[in-house]
Amino acid sequence: MFDTFHSKTLIGKIWFILQFTLKMTFVPIWAIIEYLAPYTNTRPFYLTHQLFWHILPFSFMFFFYIFCPSENSSPNVKYLFIIWGLFAFFYPFVALEVFRILTKYKPVVQKMIHVILGLFGMIVSIWIMILCVISWQFGFFQMASGFTFLIFLCCMAISYFFFSSCRTNLYICLPSENRPFSGVKSYVILFGIFHILVAVGISFLLKIWPACVCGALLTCSFMYCVDAYSCFFTDSYILCEHRETQSEMKKKLPIDGIIQHVVIREMYSKKKNPEELPEEYQFDDELNLEERWYKEFSPFIVWKCQEDI
Asked: How far apart, in whole angstroms, are the C-alpha atoms of residue 143 and residue 134?
């Protein structure tokens, strides 16, 4: 984002200042993430990244409104807010330590199975959080519902780490024709209808604040589902080198950071003869990048591993 400011024209600088001011005013988290994170760390699943970074603090901050005790609540419910306070204090430290440990086992070349499992974990976490909100509103297992909500909020963050391309040298990008919003896709429409119907049903069952939170969670679920579907059923993907700014995508070689086109054998074999694979492609189960030059990526923000120290 900030590479726009280096434009030599006055119009470019004015446009940058206006754009950044509007984002900081209306969507500050969006602006901060774009400023701190390298460009390709939040691409190509841009909406999924943005929704995650908005729903995480949103759910945590509105915990009081969602799980507000009522006259019929159990006396033990008050301990939920003590637990929330402990989560608020220790969460940043625990999260950094967990991510540091997980980083040791994360491959430098992003794998499709990790993207899919990460998205699946985020979907499961979202729906369990929705069930926790509904359970609380109907007075079922209120203490357990609140505690489970916080636990799976953390699980969603861990799943996101597996899904994201953070701490990798090469990241996965889907071909444009396999992306969920490149044209009209039937599965996107079906997922959209399903989530809208659930949102309408919840709006009749819950009060306004819990219903709003569930609506936000359902929006995230929709994006996670369409991305997971597109990744699970794609027959190919592209391994790309990271870029710190958008302008580097076309200025640095290779263009768009493309290192290798990869074909998923199981999906490809259903459509074409594996022997007809173009030379510039490789099968995912025979992937060899030794002859492909790419540089090690050092992002602006990193969690140091033991071997880095």
From this structure: 13
